[in-house]
Amino acid sequence: MPFTDPYPAKSGNTPPRPGVLTIDVRKAARVARMGESPDTQARELATEARDRVRFEEEALQLADQVYRVARRLVHSKEEAEDLVQETYARAFRSWRSYTPGTNLRAWMLRILTNLNIDRGRRQQRAPDTTHLEESDYFLYNRLEDDSADDEERLLQRLSQNDIVDALAAVPHDFRDVIVLVDIGDFSYQEAAQILDIPVGTVMSRLHRGRRILKRHLAEATVGGE
User: Fold this and answer.
1) Neighbour count for residue 176 (Cβ, 10 Å)
2) Quick one: pLDDT at residue 28?
């Protein structure tokens, strides 16, 4: 049986076979990179180095503000210093993921918040053997409740694990506001300045975030029954 070419040659422009175009594009890109002059490569490396230096300089200018938030999130100066050091270490490793021109302070504080949650998980105490101190209830005390009896029962069942896990389950935008206002004890105006959002947005996110957090805490108590 004679062989029939499914892609016969035609006069004029010949359409490529499937897969040929992709291969050619990749080959062309590879050839283009290989064809870059040493000067071009050097300029690209120099540009990236300048971008990184600029990022690090701008990030370090926020060190006092980052430490201020960290100090309100942990119990001691030493813990705050460690948390800030971890925050900057991760930020410097991930600097390419930051979009220039956006709110660097909020980006840094989000890293700080996530690391603090991770630290809380690592330092979890056994819920069945260790009771929370009154100071550990500060977050739930900020949440509105319609029934004092229900709140009392909920507090009796809460553990540090529950609080950390519930906070981690809150979406980032709402969690950022909760961390600043309810944990960091910043004013609405201060939180708005830090996150570069209107005060009204802070209040709205805080209200919704508290409802989300409260729901997760309530689910934690039900799950533990």
Assistant:
1) 24
2) 52
